[in-house]
Design brief:
Blueprint lengths: L2 E6 L3 H13 L5 E7 L14 E4 L2 H8 L3 E4 L6 H10 L3 E4 L7 H14 L3 E3 L7 H11 L6 E9 L10 H16 L7 E7 L3 E8 L3 E8 L6 E8 L2 E6 L5 E5 L3 E5 L6 H11 L9 H21 L5 E2 L3
Helix pairs in contact: 1-7, 3-4, 4-8, 6-8
């Protein structure tokens, strides 16, 4: 059945969503894409006459008879907009984080269940072709039992002054760990240091698996990589590369993959087509990740440098 999709927020990331939707429009049977932003100047960057324009999110669904809405606005607006669109009875894709508090995230999940509509979030790295393949290799025992995972995402660009690096950057690393460890939850936050713009986080998981996450804006060089250390070797994924990654055991192997889509295209296809083999984070996984981020942010604010603290389950 043809779909009508709206994108709310046409900044840097919203524009990426619009371009990805155009790429998958035929595959997802999209007949209409509407860009919505309260700032008219945002539309000047769209550059496509196939995308309709609208300025008011409150009238967006009714005016264009939408089936689903993608929200790519600042973090602090996600809860209010997500709640509004779910109550308008459309499926909602909220960029991460779906909310900046666990209570608001839980409320969104409850609303989606109550109205019977889909709620998904932007954990696109679950759809990164190299990570998907690496997860298969790990499950097959290629590098042995996982001992540690390191996630780094440092970018030269300036961050949004209203956002926190834990909510926007570190959250991807926490979700990837849940994906690779098949839903295990952290036992404790061992350490969290840094500031709103740059943070380092250490988590302890069952079986003495240690997780290191290092993220930030305004870095000297761009770094985006995932390293999984096993008992018999390690896997290294450069996240900008979608066609190859390294497996290091007795020798260095460059493993090639053949991606059909970029991670963003794939996560949007998953949202719009409801594939039964989805890699998407479940609502339970999303809530666990939000809880971990909230605890880390509170510890960072309260102590600057945290002591070991048990996570609430």
């Amino acid at each position: 059945m043809p779909q009508r999709v709206g994108v709310v927020g046409c900044g840097r990331w919203g524009l990426k969503h619009l371009r990805a939707l155009e790429k998958v429009a035929e595959e997802a049977d999209i007949e209409c894409i509407v860009a919505c932003d309260v700032h008219p100047t945002a539309f000047t960057r769209i550059g496509s006459d196939r995308i309709l324009l609208h300025h008011d999110p409150h009238t967006l669904v009714e005016q264009f008879d939408l089936d689903s809405v993608i929200v790519a606005t600042p973090n602090e607006t996600h809860y209010e907009l997500g709640t509004m669109f779910l109550n308008k009875k459309v499926d909602v894709f909220l960029e991460k984080p779906i909310a900046t508090t666990f209570d608001h995230a839980s409320s969104l999940v409850s609303t989606s269940v109550h109205v019977g509509k889909t709620l998904k979030s932007g954990f696109l790295l679950r759809f990164h072709p190299c990570i998907v393949d690496a997860r298969t290799q790990i499950r097959a025992g290629k590098i042995g039992a996982i001992q540690s995972i390191r996630y780094s995402k440092n970018v030269q660009r300036q961050g949004d002054h209203t956002a926190h690096a834990l909510d926007t950057l570190a959250i991807h690393g926490i979700d990837l760990v849940e994906f690779l460890l098949d839903g295990q939850t952290p036992l404790r936050i061992s350490e969290v240091v840094g500031s709103r713009a740059s943070c380092a986080l250490t988590l302890e998981y069952p079986d003495q698996v240690e997780i290191s996450i290092d993220v930030g804006w305004e870095a000297e060089v761009d770094v985006a990589e995932l390293e999984v250390m096993g008992r018999n070797g390690k896997i290294l994924v450069k996240l900008q590369e979608h066609e190859r990654y390294e497996i290091l055991d007795d020798e260095v192997t460059i493993r090639s993959v053949e991606p059909n889509h970029t991670p963003l295209e794939a996560v949007l296809l998953d949202f719009l087509t409801s594939d039964s083999t989805s890699f998407a984070a479940s609502t339970g996984s999303i809530l666990r990740t939000i809880k971990c981020v909230e605890q880390a942010r509170l510890q960072l604010t309260a102590q600057g440098r945290s002591k070991t603290r048990e996570l609430k389950r």
